[in-house]
Each structure stands twice: as structure tokens, then as C-alpha cells.
């Protein structure tokens, strides 16, 4: 997200995290250049929701450590999501520099059970994984992957489910998350879902009404 009013409206729906994409090739790119329309005025944190229980996730793709650190402090990020070919060494260095208060998340793109195992080199240096649809692009494909592949995940780090989840997926998600004692039937380490391109009216601009309806369906 990047439009200030849109961010505030979505934050009031009860979402837990909002994502800000800092990859210049993305149509959702959040520039550092001041702009009256978006979340990049001279003091960018003033345009973000005041509710600090809504965590700010910065999404990076093969960025330098210095670029990531600068964005964390400039935008008051809570979570760093790494969506490229970042090494475990880079992540450990970021943790040492930023401190334990900033959480790390690594995206893993999958299309087969074997590819789920790509999480293993990162298991001891991240707080979350995000399993997404493998695509020729970096995220935002709008396509599902076979969620049953996640049964191959045998790690202990919690993860988010991503990949083309849209307004018509509420029944499927309710079924997938209908495990005993509130656990996720899809996988015990799955703690939430990532909503992106299929809830947009334009890149970076969320359809607030569609999100509100979707969330209400999931709450029943």
C-alpha cells in the first residue's frame, strides 16, 4: 500500500499488518521522493495509521543492507519481508544491526513439495516465512498454488499463506482453517493470510469495501 487515506481506511478494518513495497520495479513501489498523494511526504510516518497494533511490513527484493536499514528507520517498519535471493548471512547481519525488535520474514515461492524445503537455510534466522506462488514475476501473480504442498513443511517457524487469495476464497479458507482448538487445518504453523493484488482497484490501492466484506465472511 502507499496511499495515505487508503492505508488509514484499511487499518480500521481490523487487519494486523500492512505492506509497503520498496522494490523499484514494482507498480506498488513506495518511493522515497516526497509526494502529496501518497505515504511519502517529508515525514512519511505521519501518513501511516496511528494504530501501532497495525504492524508495518517493508517488502524488499535483493536490496542492500543499507537500503533496508534506511527504510526501516524512515518508515518506522516493524517487519522486514525479504522476497528475493537474500542470504541467511545478510539476514543475521540485519538482525544484529536492527535489534530483536525488528522481525524478519523470508518469502518462499513454491510449485512443488520439494521447493517447500527452500525454507531450511533460513530456519534459524527469521521470525516468519511467507509461502507464495512460484511465478516469473516477484509476487503479485494473482494465482493460487496447491495449499496441500505445505504439508511438506516440517519447520517450527510460523508462516503466512500467500498467492492469489481473492474475494471468492472465503469459503475455501474457512474450510482450510477449521482445525481443532483453533489451529489451522492447513498446517499448525500457519498464522494468517496475505491479501494483495486481487483486492486492488489499481496497483497499491485496496478496495476497502471488498476487504470489509471478505473479512466479515471469515469472521462467521
Summarize the structure.
With 220 residues, this protein is α/β, with parallel strands linked by helices. Helix content is 24%, strand content 19%. The protein contains six helices and nine strands, in the order H-E-E-H-E-H-E-H-E-E-H-E-E-E-H.
Structure description:
This protein is α/β, with parallel strands linked by helices and 220 residues long. Helices cover 24% and strands 19% of the residues. It has 6 helices and 9 strands; from the N terminus they run αββαβαβαββαβββα. The strands form 2 sheets. Strands 1-2-3-4-5-6-7 form a 7-stranded parallel beta sheet. The chain has a two-stranded antiparallel sheet with strand order 8-9. Strand 2 (55-60), helix 2 (65-75) and strand 3 form a beta-alpha-beta unit. The longest helix is centred in the N-terminal third of the chain and has 11 residues, at 65-75. The mean pLDDT is 86.
